[in-house]
Amino acid sequence: MARRLSLRTLASGLRARLIVAFLLVAALSAFATAALTFRAARTAILQHTQDTAVDTLRAQVSSQAPDLHFPPSIADLRTFAQNIERAGEAQHWVIHVRYRGGPVQPPVLTGTGDVIEPGVGKLVQRGRAAVQRISLNGKPWLTIGLPVTYGGSEEPSGLEVYARLPLRNDEVNVRALVQAAQNGALPAVGLSVIPALIAAGGVLRPVRELRRGTQQIAKGALDTRLKATGRDELADLSRTFNGMAEALEQNVAELRRMEANSRRFAADVSHELRTPLAAMTAVVDVLDEDADGLDPDTAYAVRLISEETGKLARMVEDLMEISRFDAGAAALHLDEVDVGETVRKTLQARGWQDKVHTELPEGVRARLDPRRIDVVVANLVGNALRHGGEPVRVSVRAEPAERSGPGPRLLIEVADRGEGIDPEVLPHVFDRFYKADAARVRSEGSGLGLAITLENVRLHNGTIRAANAPEGGAVFTVELPLRTGGEEG
């Protein structure tokens, strides 16, 4: 099967098409040249035979006619025809004569056809010699008609001489010419394979280099350049590729620089905000405890400051967490845990056990980072409670290894019964700071919860996907390798 695919790919490749096109052009050229040569040679052979036969007949008539008495008798006509036929024995011709439209002498044998072709006979009666090639019983023949004049004058005597000779030798020569043309054309087509391979190699070499360069660019080697020589279109294509690669390298370098600056800025800002936020949180906590003893307006202001300070503190923590992922500083601390129990503790710690329906079978154990799985479950359930609809369902299950697929997998699923996620929003739910409603400039979260969830799942070599359930509501599915005992990812 693989061999058939390889042969099919080779046959449909550019090299094969170039060679076939080159061979077709070579074959057409060779056969067209052979055909034109054959046509010219055939015409020359037949014309030479025709001219020789006419000249010979005219010479024989000129030598025999002076001995003929006019008006000739039937016996004289037969003798005249026999003498000419005997004298031109090398021509293998058959001679017939007639006088002033009389009967043909000697008489025509049955099955030999008309001796006098209509077109030839009319021209001879007008005093002009005529020649015509005919086919008799599938064989080629040459018919010649010649008017006989008196002595050296141009006055017609009324005597007409008709000769019919076979063209067998000419046909043999023509067939030999055809065979020679074929024998010359076929080797020429065969030999054209060599220049075809050379030409195809010359065309495909820059194409292969371009493919190799493109593959290197795709792998991240942005400094890849092609060697461009010559002034043809392929050389221009290589130069264009080099210009594109150079521009791409500069743009990517600039983007990476800007991205690094952005990440460093976020990390620096979040780090610098952490200390004053800690002090602000301590002060706000003290004020919040005494809020009940303050007047209503002041108490409202204190609680509002406390709430916003808490949001700001969570945002700073999320920024620092995402900065650690960007810097590659996030590490896994694996421990073998009961997955159902770990999820149950996450819900209890946040007081969600009464709001969430669970399907947490016992005995599903895996090597995970409990703190990061806690963040994953908390973010997904919190997102479902805020933006979805109750009841929220959390389920855990283990799937065995597929025969040709990955090993055993751990699936954690969080589903709600809300309105679901807009199909236009689905591809962006894990983007940082993405908001489905651009008019909502403020929200309870930092806009980084699902992005942090995605990074934590990736850190476990897992995947996460978002979808809408057929019965309504959004479904988030986390799929992780099910490692146990001493296994590592």
Notes on the protein architecture:
With 489 residues, the protein is an alpha+beta fold. Among the domains are: 160 residues, Beta-Lactamase, CATH 3.30.450; 147 residues, 2-Layer Sandwich (Heat Shock Protein 90), CATH 3.30.565.10. Helices cover 53% and strands 16% of the residues. It has eleven helices and eleven strands. The strands form three sheets. A five-stranded mixed sheet has the order 6-8-9-11-10, with helices on one face. Strands 1-4-3-2 form a four-stranded antiparallel sheet, with helices on both faces. The protein has a two-stranded antiparallel sheet with strand order 5-7. A hairpin with a 6-residue loop joins β3 and β4. α2 packs antiparallel against α6 and α9 crosses α10. The chain is rod-shaped, with a radius of gyration of 52 Å. About 1% of the residues have low confidence.
Helix count, DSSP H or I runs of 4 or more residues: 11
Strand content: 15-25%
Q: For the largest sheet, list the strands in their spatial order.
A: 6-8-9-11-10
What is the succession of H and E elements?
HHHEHEEEHHHHEHEEHEEHEE
Rg result: 52 Å
- Taking pLDDT < 50 over at least 5 consecutive residues as the criterion, the unreliable ranges are 438-443
- CATH level 3 topology of the domain at 14-173: Beta-Lactamase
Helix content: 40-55%
Kindly name the structural category. Answer: alpha+beta
What global shape is seen? rod-shaped
Mean pLDDT: 77
- Please give the largest β-sheet: 5 strands, mixed
User: What's the CATH class label of the domain at 14-173?
Assistant: Alpha Beta
Looking at CATH, the homologous superfamily of the domain at 14-173 is PAS domain
What's the CATH architecture of the domain at 14-173?
Answer: 2-Layer Sandwich
Span between termini: 35 Å
